């Protein structure tokens, strides 16, 4: 029997309402090569406003990671909030997994909406994509904000003990949790002060609900297998897929969006494989680097390394008493620095004793 109530599904509904109430609408673009991109876009694009692209990281969809910022930012910018490939409602049948391909798909989506100039803000994995957009399309990307995004990492960093995990396989098991225990581990690594004693039923609900979301979306995509199309034709797709999910798949532990698990795993593996700082292009746009003081996903050293790589073109702000999830732990501080960097003309940082631009928030 299907569950009658889901906190996660209810929150998804509330987030969709919040985005819609802030002047955005859900839109899907078929790029014509087996790739479909979903994006929240302005109901009305106003030419007098600058355009801002918000790119999410690995984990839940874009709504969960950006909801706190939609209302205040939408009054100042034309906001575009895409789901990256294999997240939310975006997908591709193509084999590419590099962040450069994600960046190309986001840019092609923006071009389809007639957007020619933009500022890009990326959290974690979204920062990899945003950085690549700036490198590939310097004429279109005017400014860049990177939040806890380890674009400066190297493959050897794992062997040298920079991370809390010892291998890419272990990293995948944490970043794509399929059990409450792994989700607790992810929370511990993501937050400076993680919530303790979260009941397993809530964690299972989060994992299961996102699987079911992806499962239901499968039936409407052009790449869906024929047997799923038969369920759709049967009448009540939601009821049928819920019954199939809870009766057959859950007992087999097929959770946490198993539909896209392999593809997401490949995205993470591609980030790490053969990565060298010497291969990282130096973007020329003004760049703001934001980092949690106690980030355990991407160590703070990566922020300083990226600042050195970009030199005077970048500003580094370190958020005090914050971990990796700065959008959730320090939303007010994050918004303050976004607003200052993107809109204000006054200097954003001050020179510290060693000559690099960095600042901690009290």
UniProtKB/TrEMBL annotation:
InterPro entries xref list: AB_hydrolase_1 (IPR000073), AB_hydrolase_fold (IPR029058), Epox_hydrolase-like (IPR000639), Meta-cleavage_hydrolase (IPR052370)
Fetch the Pfam families from UniProt: Abhydrolase_1
Q: Where is the secretion signal located?
A: none
Please list the coiled coil stretches: none
Give all residue intervals belonging to the AB hydrolase-1 domain. Answer: 50-331
Q: Which SUPFAM superfamilies match?
A: alpha/beta-Hydrolases
Known PANTHER family for this protein?
A: ALPHA_BETA-HYDROLASES SUPERFAMILY PROTEIN, SI:DKEY-122A22.2
| Identification of the protein by name | AB hydrolase-1 domain-containing protein
